[in-house]
Specification:
It is a single chain. By secondary structure, the protein is α/β, with parallel strands linked by helices. It has a single domain, classed as Decaprenyl diphosphate synthase-like (Undecaprenyl pyrophosphate synthetase, 3-Layer(aba) Sandwich), CATH 3.40.1180. Helices cover 42% and strands 15% of the residues. It has a six-stranded parallel beta sheet, sandwiched between helices. α4 links the parallel β3 and β4. The chain is globular, with a radius of gyration of 18 Å.
Length: 240
Amino acid sequence: MIFSKKRTKTEDNGLNVIPNHLAIIMDGNGRWATKRHLPRTAGHKAGSENFVKTVDECARLGIKYLTVYAFSTENWNRNQTEVDGIMEIMRSYIVKYVPILDKKNIRLRILGDLNYFDEESRNALIASVKKLENNTAFTLCIALSYGGRHEILQAVNRLLAEGKNEVTEKEFEEALYTAGIPDPDFIIRTSGEERISNFLLWQSAYAEYYFTKVLWPDFDESELRKALVEFGKRKRRFGK
């Protein structure tokens, strides 16, 4: 695995090693809103704002890949009003944030089954990925309409359709949404839940996990650094 070790600022003390690829299960938006007697969509909006700050901080720290779990295949089964609110937030952020990503030389990948989206949203996502595909400073992967089991089944069916009777690990990985992206080194889940919820099932085979009770909208830069300090203490053996 490749890690960045460049540390320059005082506030980064203790970050001896940072992951090349960080993944985050951004959980707790709804509970954050409920605690404040707000509609759940207010929590998703607050979570989206924190997501923007997190992308900037990860890029500043020298993390090369960030994958965030934004919306799962199971999330389509939520209350329709909540789903519609999340989709509206997503569309507004595409318009507002993609030009900013481009200025910062950030590449975008969408992981998930875009067939679930309406045509307008699907086309906007595809166009955003295309616009940013040649950027090189940092890669942001957003898991939208994503499910690990669904991803694996799609990969298997794609390989079968190609006439494959037997595949190598490399060939299988190239059929996944994450083709060309290194496996995550460190996966953070906020809100106190301690499960992986169908996220990067294949790719997380040797990832380190970190669970925190902090709800996603409150997971600020100091909480991120706290998690990264913990990552630096881990002894990764990869089965050896």
